[in-house]
Amino acid sequence: MRLRIEPFLYAIAASAAAVLLGQWLGQDALQRALYTARFTARVGVPLVLLIYTASSLHRLWPGTGTAWLSRNRRSLGLGFALTHTVHLAAVLNYIAQPGSPPQPAAGILGYVFIYLMAFSSNPGSMKQLGQWWHRLHAAGVQIVFLYFLVGYASMVFEPELRPLGLTVVPLLLAALGVRIAAWRARRVAGGAV
Predict the structure, then answer these.
(1) Picking from 23-27, 102-106, 133-137, which range would have the lowest pLDDT averaged per residue?
(2) How far apart are CA 138 and CA 52, in angstroms?
């Protein structure tokens, strides 16, 4: 299966724009690093939503667009890995700034799964890992999605970030709803319900 270039172009353009915006809006090195880390995290949201719902959307509403989305999940996932590599570099830069508050290492598990999925997104790994490949990717997608959901839900409690949290959390919950609806449709079609 051929990789699509569009997710990579999006990842490069959106990540570069996020870095430039963070550098432009920040008033000192610490604030520039903070804004860059925040903005680079946000460019992954559209990709997470597409990746998380791709096969479910196709199951519920088969068509040309949803077929394209489902076929190109690997390209979307690798584009997401690229955006979050830029985000990781921005976070590490923020942590290295004098005066930055201590940061929890909670995101490490998410990055482990992002990179495991990225490095195993090829036919050779699929064949070599067999069922473990499916388990790795199924668990990884859920874990990354959960990080996004918890991260954006926590923004609701911070006045400065509340509008963003109140915008993204409903989109993430809608994506979860699509996954649940597709799971139920598959069970009904299989006669399990």
Answers:
(1) 102-106
(2) 10
CB 34 within 8 A of CB 26: yes
Is 118 a domain residue? Answer: yes
- H/E stretch holding 40 reads helix 29-42
> In this structure, what CATH number is given to the domain that contains residue 48?
1.20.120
Distance CA 188, CA 193 (A): 5
Range of the domain at 63: 6-189
Of 59-63, 102-106, 161-165, give the lowest mean pLDDT range. 102-106
Q: Please tell me the distance from the alpha carbon of residue 24 to that of residue 84, in angstroms, as a whole number.
A: 20
At 58, list the tokens: 């196709």
Cα–Cα nearest to 174, from 80, 40, 52, 7: 52
C-alpha angle with apex 8: 38 to 60, nearest 5 degrees? 90
Decide if 1 is inside a domain.
no
As a whole number, mean pLDDT of residues 10-23 equals: 96
Number of Cβ within 10 Å of residue 153's Cβ equals 15
Number of domains, the chain? 1
Give the closest residue to 61 by CA, choosing from 178, 192, 171, 191: 178
Label residues 2-11 b or e (16+ Cβ within 10 Å = b). eebeebbebb
Three-state SS for 171? helix
